[in-house]
Amino acid sequence: MNQLNKIAILIGLLLLPIFKSWAQEEIRFSNFSYNRLFYNPAYAGSSRFMEAVLAYRNQWVDIEGSPETTVLSIQAPVNYTNFGLGAVVYNNKFGIQKDNAVFLNYAYHLKVSFEGTLSMGIQAGFINKQINWTELTTYDPNFPSLDDPAFPNQDISTWVPNFGIGFYYYTPKYYLGFSAPRLLSNDQPASEGFSDNMKFKFKNTVCYLGAGATLPINPEFEFKPSALVISSYSGTTTAMANFDMLHESGISFGLGYRTDDSVAGNIGYQLSQKLSFSYSYEKYFGKYQSKGFTNHEIILNYNLSLKKSKITSPRYF
Question: Dihedrals φ, ψ of 41, to 5°?
Fold first, then answer.
């Protein structure tokens, strides 16, 4: 069996769960292959250069309180060693809830074949979980001069620890990864006290299985399929798949499918040797069609060589 057939089978196996899926869980990005450290700590150091990613996603546009997510990540190999380091900072807002998080990543890379490398990574950090009750306007006719007593009259904020693991196998042509970047299901803060939010609960742990490949079509074009399957301990599964084309000029374009009956259009451009830009427009076409079920996503990737040699492949797996 040749290498191309192996890659096709690998992508096909990852897409099987698409035919049975449920609602979205955790934070997701349409262009997940441009933001891999967020999903897998083992990605740290897998490139031959330092990579910084700034990602922004605005979900369900025109709906008040809809999710907004901003992620900043940075990763790099440590020269003359077999490990890489990274860091992820993100802000996620949904209604009156807000999460601010910071994680540090460490990955060890082991050469297992002539072209293949297996990376094993861990990450640890803290999440600041907030519920801003004072942003709500409440009214109960039984309490005409007061706000509804069923709602707290003050904001709640709690710092909680979390950690995760990941495995990432990569070659110059394809990659395969499995991770659980946030093993603990930190509940939203409760008014009863800090201690109730420090319990380690694995019941809603989310795992990610991802894969992608770069398949040359001709001297000018490369086909870049990728897939990400998201599964939780509670039994829910979602999946995403992108089918992109990359031109030698640095222009990329493609389509994506989401198991919540959403379709995404992806475009990108290599602005310079170091900087690339990608944009994703996602539209929901399911049962509950609405102009508000539209998502926008922008990702900037900045690559900086740690050695004097030039960056020859910004999309190296």
Answer: -65, -20
